[in-house]
Amino acid sequence: MRRLFSLVVLAALVAPLAADDTKLKVKVGDAFPDVPLAATQIEQLKKDAKTVSIKDLKGKIAVVFFYPRAMTPGCTVESCGFRDIAKDFPKDVVILGASSDTVAKNDEFTKKETLTYPLLCDTDLQLIQSLGIQSPKGKVAQRLTFVIDRDGKIAKIYEKVTPKEHPKEVLAFVKELAAKK
Predict the structure, then answer these.
(1) Contacts of 1 (CB under 8 A, 6+ apart)
(2) Which of 35, 38, 79, 113 is least buried, going by the fewest C-beta atoms within 10 A?
(3) Per residue in 147-164, pLDDT tens?
(4) What is the pLDDT of residues 59-111, one digit of tens each?
(5) What are the distances in angstroms from CA 36 to CA 100, 103, 150, 151, 171?
């Protein structure tokens, strides 16, 4: 009886793991998925555009940091951290925040925190799911960052992000990458 109980408990613990599709679906060297998304401040990237995708940034290095929800404590710290050092990134680097929030919510976040870069709005979770970074806690992204090289390939993936220190960590890597022209 005890053995049967142990097997049932083990099966109950393993089943959710087998159903978990939040595993990263890309790796360094892969092409970053080309999913067109609405964005705040899109005019910084493309004039008269409704969406932007990675192919629009070809020839530039892109930093795409995903955050779960706009205007929450960790997301605000991380976003403001990138804002505060944006001027220190090389000229051909594009910084993009990304979440499943709406354009209206991200626009409110941009104005409240005076963010200086566009925020991608993946409301349908197309990019989030194609990367395998949907949070098991709901229809939001996990906190991860991707650095994409000038050819649209993933140069670095940050899976463990500490919001306060992370922007400086990314800056150091991007400066090295940009120097490799």
Answers:
(1) none
(2) 113
(3) 999 999 999 999 999 999
(4) 999 999 999 999 999 999 999 999 999 999 999 999 999 999 999 999 999 99
(5) 13, 14, 18, 17, 25
Task: State how far the Cα of 58 lies from the Cα of 17, in Å rounded to an integer.
Answer: 37
| Structure tokens that stand for 163 in this block | 């919001």
How far is it, in rounded angstroms, from Cα 150 to Cα 92? 9
Residues tagged active-site: 75
- Token couple for 70: 């706009």
* 93 contacts 16 by C-beta, under 8 angstroms: no
Element holding 77 (H helix, E strand): helix 73-85
Helices and strands (H, E) in the chain, number of each type: 5, 6
To the question of pTM greater than 0.85 for the whole model, the response is: yes
Q: Find out whether 125 and 106 touch, Cβ atoms under 8 Å.
A: no
Helix (H) or strand (E) segment spanning residue 16 = helix 2-19
Q: Name which of 155, 161, 159 is nearest 173 in CA terms.
A: 155
Using DSSP bridges, classify how beta strands 61-66 and 93-99 pair: parallel, antiparallel or unpaired.
parallel
The CATH code that applies to domain 21-179 is: 3.40.30.10
HSE of 118, CA atoms in CB hemisphere, 13 A: 25
